[in-house]
Design goal:
The protein is mainly alpha-helical. The chain has helices at residues 2-20, 29-57, 60-80, 93-116; strands spanning 82-85, 88-91. The protein has four helices and two strands; from the N terminus they run αααββα.
Protein backbone atom coordinates (compact mmCIF):
# COMPACT_ATOMS: atom_id res chain seq x y z
CA UNK A 1 0.00 0.00 0.00
CA UNK A 2 2.79 2.42 0.91
CA UNK A 3 4.56 1.72 -2.40
CA UNK A 4 1.42 2.51 -4.40
CA UNK A 5 0.90 5.73 -2.43
CA UNK A 6 4.52 6.77 -2.91
CA UNK A 7 4.31 5.96 -6.62
CA UNK A 8 1.09 7.99 -6.91
CA UNK A 9 2.69 10.98 -5.18
CA UNK A 10 5.76 10.71 -7.44
CA UNK A 11 3.65 10.56 -10.61
CA UNK A 12 1.50 13.50 -9.44
CA UNK A 13 4.64 15.49 -8.65
CA UNK A 14 6.15 14.76 -12.05
CA UNK A 15 2.90 15.70 -13.72
CA UNK A 16 2.84 19.06 -11.88
CA UNK A 17 6.50 19.75 -12.74
CA UNK A 18 5.87 18.99 -16.40
CA UNK A 19 2.87 21.31 -16.45
CA UNK A 20 4.75 24.07 -14.62
CA UNK A 21 7.41 24.01 -17.35
CA UNK A 22 4.73 24.81 -19.94
CA UNK A 23 4.97 28.57 -19.59
CA UNK A 24 2.65 29.19 -22.54
CA UNK A 25 -0.27 28.09 -20.38
CA UNK A 26 0.30 29.36 -16.86
CA UNK A 27 -2.43 28.00 -14.56
CA UNK A 28 -1.82 29.86 -11.33
CA UNK A 29 0.52 32.21 -9.48
CA UNK A 30 2.92 29.37 -8.65
CA UNK A 31 3.36 28.62 -12.35
CA UNK A 32 3.83 32.34 -13.02
CA UNK A 33 6.58 32.58 -10.39
CA UNK A 34 8.26 29.46 -11.77
CA UNK A 35 8.13 30.74 -15.35
CA UNK A 36 9.29 34.25 -14.40
CA UNK A 37 12.23 32.72 -12.55
CA UNK A 38 13.17 30.71 -15.65
CA UNK A 39 13.11 33.89 -17.75
CA UNK A 40 15.19 35.74 -15.15
CA UNK A 41 17.81 32.97 -14.93
CA UNK A 42 18.20 33.00 -18.74
CA UNK A 43 18.49 36.80 -18.80
CA UNK A 44 21.02 36.72 -15.96
CA UNK A 45 23.08 34.06 -17.77
CA UNK A 46 23.06 36.24 -20.91
CA UNK A 47 24.05 39.25 -18.82
CA UNK A 48 27.05 37.41 -17.37
CA UNK A 49 28.10 36.14 -20.80
CA UNK A 50 27.86 39.60 -22.37
CA UNK A 51 29.69 41.22 -19.46
CA UNK A 52 32.56 38.73 -19.67
CA UNK A 53 32.77 39.10 -23.46
CA UNK A 54 32.93 42.88 -23.16
CA UNK A 55 35.53 42.70 -20.38
CA UNK A 56 37.83 40.70 -22.70
CA UNK A 57 37.78 43.53 -25.25
CA UNK A 58 38.67 46.32 -22.83
CA UNK A 59 41.92 47.81 -21.58
CA UNK A 60 42.61 47.47 -17.84
CA UNK A 61 41.41 51.06 -17.25
CA UNK A 62 38.23 50.49 -19.25
CA UNK A 63 37.67 47.18 -17.48
CA UNK A 64 37.81 48.94 -14.12
CA UNK A 65 35.28 51.55 -15.30
CA UNK A 66 32.93 48.83 -16.54
CA UNK A 67 33.24 46.91 -13.26
CA UNK A 68 32.31 50.03 -11.24
CA UNK A 69 29.41 50.67 -13.62
CA UNK A 70 28.20 47.09 -13.27
CA UNK A 71 28.37 47.18 -9.47
CA UNK A 72 26.42 50.46 -9.43
CA UNK A 73 23.85 48.95 -11.79
CA UNK A 74 23.45 45.87 -9.54
CA UNK A 75 22.91 48.09 -6.50
CA UNK A 76 20.34 50.19 -8.39
CA UNK A 77 18.54 47.08 -9.71
CA UNK A 78 18.39 45.55 -6.25
CA UNK A 79 17.12 48.79 -4.66
CA UNK A 80 14.56 49.36 -7.41
CA UNK A 81 13.32 45.77 -7.61
CA UNK A 82 12.90 44.94 -3.93
CA UNK A 83 11.10 46.29 -0.93
CA UNK A 84 10.31 45.57 2.67
CA UNK A 85 7.06 44.00 3.75
CA UNK A 86 5.72 42.57 6.98
CA UNK A 87 7.24 39.19 6.01
CA UNK A 88 10.68 40.52 5.07
CA UNK A 89 12.30 41.59 1.84
CA UNK A 90 10.23 41.11 -1.30
CA UNK A 91 11.92 40.77 -4.68
CA UNK A 92 9.91 41.87 -7.70
CA UNK A 93 10.91 39.34 -10.33
CA UNK A 94 9.26 41.10 -13.27
CA UNK A 95 11.22 44.25 -12.39
CA UNK A 96 14.45 42.26 -12.20
CA UNK A 97 13.73 40.66 -15.57
CA UNK A 98 13.07 44.07 -17.18
CA UNK A 99 16.16 45.70 -15.63
CA UNK A 100 18.37 42.73 -16.57
CA UNK A 101 17.12 42.70 -20.15
CA UNK A 102 17.75 46.46 -20.38
CA UNK A 103 21.29 46.00 -19.07
CA UNK A 104 21.85 43.17 -21.54
CA UNK A 105 20.84 45.49 -24.37
CA UNK A 106 23.25 48.11 -23.02
CA UNK A 107 26.11 45.58 -22.85
CA UNK A 108 25.32 44.36 -26.37
CA UNK A 109 25.43 47.96 -27.63
CA UNK A 110 28.88 48.38 -26.04
CA UNK A 111 30.02 45.12 -27.67
CA UNK A 112 28.83 46.33 -31.09
CA UNK A 113 30.65 49.63 -30.59
CA UNK A 114 33.86 47.81 -29.70
CA UNK A 115 33.61 45.68 -32.83
CA UNK A 116 32.72 48.53 -35.19
CA UNK A 117 34.47 51.70 -33.97
CA UNK A 118 36.46 50.55 -30.96
CA UNK A 119 35.63 50.55 -27.27
CA UNK A 120 34.75 54.08 -26.15
CA UNK A 121 35.74 54.71 -22.53
CA UNK A 122 33.10 57.42 -22.16
CA UNK A 123 30.33 54.94 -23.02
CA UNK A 124 31.25 52.48 -20.26
CA UNK A 125 29.99 54.39 -17.22
Amino acid sequence: MKRKLALGVLIAGLSWAAHADNCDHVRNSYDAVHCNNKVYVNADNDLNKNYQELQRKLSPQQSSILKRSQLAWIKDRDNTCSGESNVGTVIYTVCQIRKTQERNAWLQDRLRECKVIGCKTSALS
